[in-house]
Specification:
This protein has 7 helices and 7 strands. It is of the alpha/beta class. It has one domain. Strands 1, 2, 3, 4, 5, 6 and 7 form a 7-stranded mixed β-sheet that branches. A hairpin with a 2-residue loop joins strand 1 and strand 2.
């Protein structure tokens, strides 16, 4: 599975599940000379604006990376600098009860990505889910995408940080039966993954 296929499914998901979302692929940012590009930027209104800043990782990216540290450096850079860019800045609002930004590091549900995350579960699990975009509350999620074979509304996430670390009981309960992720967890043939 390629990252462009993952991006296509996410675009279809947000176009189906959100009213008039602003969606941009390969969105550049530049804050204090720190330049970068995120795979997908989605702004929805619920009714307040909520930004989803998404980094996608499929097999090719995982194989090219020198390790989880490189993947996390890229993700952390996105977290730190995307909303520091004046074009993407979020302003605090009185009465906001939901996070204004959601930073997502999404892996394809393939045996290669499952093996990579399982091998580096401590690093990916250490990403604190409570985050901030300047003075605005945010959420950071490291997860596998699920529901890729269903309709656009079926797309979902199975987190590997926060309360559901990789391999934990909550993680296993969240994996949909018969999903690509369930198949990939069973396909990793070593002691890294124990999945029924």
């Amino acid at each position: 599975m390629r990252e462009d296929a993952l991006a296509t499914r996410l675009v279809e998901h947000y176009e189906t599940t959100a009213d008039d979302p602003a969606i941009r692929l390969e969105e550049p940012y530049d804050a204090d000379g720190r330049e970068g590009v995120v795979d997908l930027f989605v702004r929805t209104r619920t009714p307040e604006p909520v930004d989803r800043v998404i980094e996608l990782k499929a097999d090719a990216a995982v194989r090219r990376a020198t390790g989880a540290n490189e993947v996390l450096r890229q993700y952390r850079r996105m977290e730190r600098y995307f909303h520091a860019d004046e074009r993407h800045a979020l302003r605090p609002k009185l009465g906001r009860v939901e996070p204004a930004a959601r930073y997502l590091l999404c892996f394809a549900p393939t045996p290669t990505c499952v093996h990579h995350v399982a091998t580096n579960r401590t690093l990916y699990g250490s990403v604190d889910s409570d985050s901030r975009a300047g003075d605005v509350p945010a959420v950071s999620t490291v997860a596998f995408l699920t529901g890729l074979d269903g309709g656009p509304a079926a797309l979902g996430l199975v987190s590997v940080n926060g309360d559901a670390e990789f391999g934990s009981a909550p993680f296993k309960r969240a994996v949909p039966d018969g999903s690509r992720l369930a198949e990939s967890l069973r396909a990793v043939d070593d002691d890294l993954v124990e999945f029924p």
